[in-house]
């Protein structure tokens, strides 16, 4: 069952975002980027208040994804990434991105915190950061 509302176009947009942000990190890396996106739609907290759709999340400004400024984001969604996007929309979570609202690719190690949120781990080149359940309870809801 979907944990966020998603139109067919929204699923494709999330698939494109996942590919653009993490294709080089394989299937699991793309799934983790998808977790962050879905969590941002679900959260309604911190920097993500009022985000109600995949489109809102992808193009949030400020705070959106830099991949949207690159031409490869605008490629057609492939069936492989569409299947991955559906998994995260349907509630599948992948550690360390399970409850994360942020990720980035540092030049060195992962900092202990980013935007005052604790580091939950690293997968290949990306570090992930999640809010506390007190700051963002909706991220932790099982809906």
Polypeptide structure, described:
With 143 residues, the protein is an alpha+beta fold. It is built from five helices and four strands. Strands 1-4-3-2 form a four-stranded antiparallel β-sheet, with helices on one face. Strand 3 (117-123) and strand 4 (126-129) form a beta hairpin. Helix 1 (8-22) packs across helix 2, helix 1 (8-22) crosses helix 4 and helix 2 packs across helix 4. The longest helix is centred in the N-terminal third of the chain and has 18 residues, at 26-43. The relative contact order is 0.21. The model has no long low-confidence stretch (mean pLDDT 95).
The portion of residues assigned to helices is 25-40%
Discrete helix count: 5
Tell me the structural class.
alpha+beta
Q: β content, as a range?
A: 5-15%
What does the main sheet amount to? 4 strands, antiparallel
Task: Assign an overall shape.
Answer: globular
Question: Which whole number gives the mean pLDDT?
Answer: 95
Instruction: Give Rg in angstroms.
Output: 14 Å
Give the strand tally.
4
What tags apply to this protein structure?
single chain; 143 residues; alpha+beta; 4-stranded antiparallel beta sheet; 5 helices
Q: Which helices and strands occur, and which strands form pairs?
A:
Elements: H1 8-22, H2 26-43, H3 54-58, H4 79-89, E1 102-104, E2 113-114, E3 117-123, E4 126-129, H5 137-140
Antiparallel strand pairs: 1-4, 2-3, 3-4
In short:
With 143 residues, the protein is an alpha+beta fold.
């Amino acid at each position: 069952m979907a944990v966020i509302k998603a139109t067919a176009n929204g699923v494709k947009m999330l698939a494109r975002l996942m590919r653009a942000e993490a294709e080089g990190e394989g299937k699991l890396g793309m799934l983790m980027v998808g977790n962050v996106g879905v969590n941002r739609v679900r959260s309604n907290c911190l920097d993500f208040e009022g985000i109600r759709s995949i489109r809102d999340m992808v193009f949030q400004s400020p705070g959106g994804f830099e991949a949207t400024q690159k031409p490869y984001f605008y490629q057609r969604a492939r069936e492989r990434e569409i299947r991955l996007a559906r998994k995260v929309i349907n509630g599948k979570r992948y550690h360390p991105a399970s409850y994360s609202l942020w990720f980035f690719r540092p030049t060195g190690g992962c900092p202990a915190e980013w935007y005052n949120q604790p580091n939950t781990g690293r997968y290949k080149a990306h570090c992930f950061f999640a809010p506390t359940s007190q700051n963002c309870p909706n991220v932790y809801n099982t809906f």
